[in-house]
Give the backbone structure.
Amino acid sequence: MTLLDVQNLWVKFPTRQGLFEAVRGVSFSLGKERLGIVGESGSGKSMTGRAILRLIRPPGIVEADHITLEGRNLLTLTEKDMRDVRGEKISMVMQDPKFSLNPVMGIGDQIMEAYLVHNRVSKSEAWRRSVEMLEAVSIRDPERVMRAYPHEMSGGMGQRIMIAMMLIPNPQIMIADEPTSALDVTVQRQVLDIMDKLVRERGMGLIFISHDLNLVADFCDRVLIMYAGRIVETCDAGKLHEAKHPYTQGLLNSLPRFDQPRKHLDVLKRDAAWVNAPDEEGAA
Amino acid sequence: MSMIAIRDLNVWYGAGRDLVNAVRDAALEVTPGESFGLVGESGSGKSTILRAITGLAPNWSGHIEIAGQTLTPGKRDREFYRRVQMVFQDPYASLHPRHTVDQVLGETLHLAGLKGIDKRVSQLLDDVGLGSKFRFRYPHQLSGGQRQRVAIARALAGEPDILLLDEPTSALDVSVQAEILNLLTDLRDEHNLTYLMVSHDLPVISHMCDRLAVMKDGEVLETLTVDALRAMEAQHPYSISLLKASVV
């Protein structure tokens, strides 16, 4: 079943040097699956996620044939209807907890707010649910964290708090923009297991945006590889290491390998032709 | 003689019911010219050790020795900061947004009490592979990798002996990470630097370091060589689980 269908998405920004095209005609559809989008910074992967939630403000321009969620084209919804979509239908875990958490608001209040906006319950019930959610993202001593402010948290804890906040309204689709990049490997695994459980149990769809190829290969079902605003390659996550595009291979080779020590790492050499290569259809 | 010697180090933040013992009875030793790694999950106290060395975490007790000199909690003198420099995780936050690269490096050189600042700034930019065309740029005109190169150049300005690297590449793309790690490898050879590097990324640490310490909940669980790690000779169950999580 298709939860979300994106057709020919463009994101453009007017600059003094002319129109900058961040996303250039991306098409894909998402079912009840874990879809990975990988690429470097500037490849347009985050912009794709933001465009779906209509988070790109003017002068940024978003154009698409359609972005369909449950038969409704998100591009034609009013801003008021869109607000019901955000959080409850599609939620987004942002890249950097330092900039996405409110620095002058207690963590407890922020998580409770996310719950209270979508649920009519008492504050004590919201507190209880928030503590549960913090436990679910394996935060030790959740009561202390509820009383704390974001600057008192480490980067990894901040990101887990963000994930707790985004999961608490129980959305259908979660867009996770580098959700685990600030976490270390063992906690990464725990957080991914939590997300995995939700995708399975509740039939959620997950768009997992990351620059970490190994993580995506391991965690997702299907991977889109983006370069310069286009999807250059689509493959099954399990077969990522057999990827054909030289860009994908270059990214894979630039990683330090635990089992293959060497003095210098391979550096990615870019080919100008990649930018204008025809877009590959990301059909489901 | 060891370059960095730490014994019985305790570091804490906060007070009362929110007191956190970030580092507990930590000990480690780094020989001159060595590259030593600290790995562990977030909150395990690995960055806190670096912060205690540089004086950014003032609440500590125990013994820290840099090249034979014992440190005390409190202010460090200029000579200390000339010898010991730190590169931070986030190049977007560690550079002054309204200072040009020239100002950043010039000020650092001035504070280090060095002469011939003009020539040294261009030399530093060449050293980190940026070149003089970046000299009068502001941080927002640089990419993440270029900013981290500026941060490394700033750390090198006073010709230090020790670089403390706090997750120097975890905010960067893998392709840029490869460039920065190669740069750090070359700089260590050229300048005879000693590295104390913090990362949660075990493959990165094993690529960069000779020996490493595994930390959890503020304690050093185990110190071992990277070769022993590669040969799967880690003793502590936590190190083994970390190893398993890293080798997919």
